[in-house]
Structure prediction request, 702 residues.
Amino acid sequence: MRIRKPLSFVAGGALAVASLVALPATAFASTSSAASATSSGPGIIAISQTGTVTGEDGAQIYGSVTGSHTVVAATPTPDGGGYWIVTRSGHVFAYGDAKYYGDTYTDGLTGLSGAKPLNAPIVGIAADPSGTGYWLVASDGGVFNFGSAPFLGSTYTYGVTGFTGKRPLDAPVTSMVLDPSGTGYWLVASDGGVFNFGSAPFLGSSYSLGYTGLGGSKPLSAPIMGAVAAPSGNGIALVGQDGSTLNVGSAPSPGSVLDLGYTGPGGKNPLPAKVTSLVVNPNGSGYYAVLGNGKVLAIGGAPQVPDVPVAPNGKVFVIPNKLQNSQPSQPLVPIAPKVPVAPQEPQGGGGGATGGGRQQIEPAIQVPTTSYDTIPGQTMQLTASGGDGSYSWGASAGMPDWLNLSSSGELSLNVSNLLGSQSLTTSFTVTIESGYQVTTIVLNVTAQAPSLTTSSFTATGSSSPYSVSGQVSVPSSYGSGYTYAESGTWPSGLSLSSSGALSGTIASAATGLEVALSYNGDLLGDVPISIALPSPLTMGTLPSSMYPGQSIQLTASGGSGSYTWSLVSLPSLYYLSSSGVLTVNSTEFDASSMRGDSYERIEVSSGSGSALSAVEASFKHPTLSTEDYTSGASPDIQLAVASGEGTGYTYAESGTWPSGLTLSSSGVIGGTLSASASSLGVYIEYNDVLVNTVPIALTYSP
Prediction:
């Protein structure tokens, strides 16, 4: 079985590439040198500035860049089976098992020239630990994400404006260092300024160590060209071109060229060339400093590896750092889904010129709500956080003319002809400025054109002309300020006031009427209403007979829907309430036949109409729920009329009852019982009128 050697990268650039394998806890991990990790043995890949790839000491190579390009960095895939190479203009080339996920050209940019150039050249590439994406970093602090690599922020999200503008960088960005968790990163500038993003905490910078950048009272001995991070994420080592190391955070120092006896660019044992690349050791502690002459220095316990051949032998050379200051004036905004994540606030470096580079960085602008529903008369305040706390809002040309957005962020409807709009849902871009920051969001707005509380009305009356009365209005949730007017042709005799009062008469049903709805004098549009004729007033089925103690609710339909009931004949055998509850007047019927002596006429009225119907004065005999009972010597039996046959009845003994046995008026059998008794008679009375006589039987069960 062939064992692939781990790949190390040495390329012409100052930004690190991702390490090949997971680092032990004692090692420092870096994505900040143009040369990536080496193993404790041979297997170095060297990449020339023109993109030619060569393998040193048996390392496997997968391809070289062709054409005219200037290579600045490379990074391997996590398994070492491929690599990505990036050029100064933002081209990305994938080889081996590395997949291409796009570059600045697929983002619509045109390299370092053309219609939409980069603000600054690309200085490095770092791989997402999953191997399915990568970041590109520019010297102005711009970050471009591709594939699965998330956009977590750039110097622009801190309000820094690249090399020009209101708040320029003090010094160019040279390095991206990945948080070992893979969910954050640091950007390091040549003055030692550090910017943190995502899960990467702010651990300090050269300024927090008392240095004053590249000038001032305590300048750095040399520009910072890269950095390596502790695998725990609690420390960063900033490495200068002279090999000096500044450690921030709590992790111990990984060492420097001073540990090898060198004295920087001068002294008794000066470095033969500047440090141009950093390479972490994937198999243990320490890292490698690659010099401009190709010499590779093993630091912090890393095993020695071969030096890199350099020009003029034509194989490979290390590109020195060259600051590019000629940049476009406007910052590049990374393309969606590159949504910035608010980082912790760094101290110093990489930012504005005030105070020797030390500055307070504003948090990124955040907009919590981007979707709104609005109605006429409602003003909504858009909100944001971050920045300097004050915000200026502006809409793009995509905002429809039925919306208004003030510079203070007040969103309202322009109600003129709102109902005539083809679309009441829109999405458009809004720009928010705060302090030195500018960001954009997509705002989603749905306008709710008001509808009427009711659009269907019913006239009243039993014959033409029918009366009309009603109120046209919009729901109270839409506020006030609405007026109404007749639109088109309305029937003669029917009118509508500006307050929405509907009045007059109609001879026939009126459909397709239009009401002109306005808000504060602005016409919203026409809304339809209709007026129907009243339904014929009819009475529900009347009972053919009733029990004396029964109450029945009479029903009707049609008319106006509100009904008044009355009896129109005498003598009255019924009581009838105005709400239609019918009960028996038991004093007016013949107890023996249980039948009245006439028919009653009942009238129901609704609006201006009425209807008559007759109910026969016929009554039913109430019965007991049961007629057979069993009791001991002391009976306690409750008699009751059968369910549904009314209430309010009283009871009395009929005929001869056994001595000692009693019946109360409420129907309770009590006293004493010594033997069974059959055919006991019971009077059922209603309002002191006898309405039935029923037999019962008592079975004695001692």
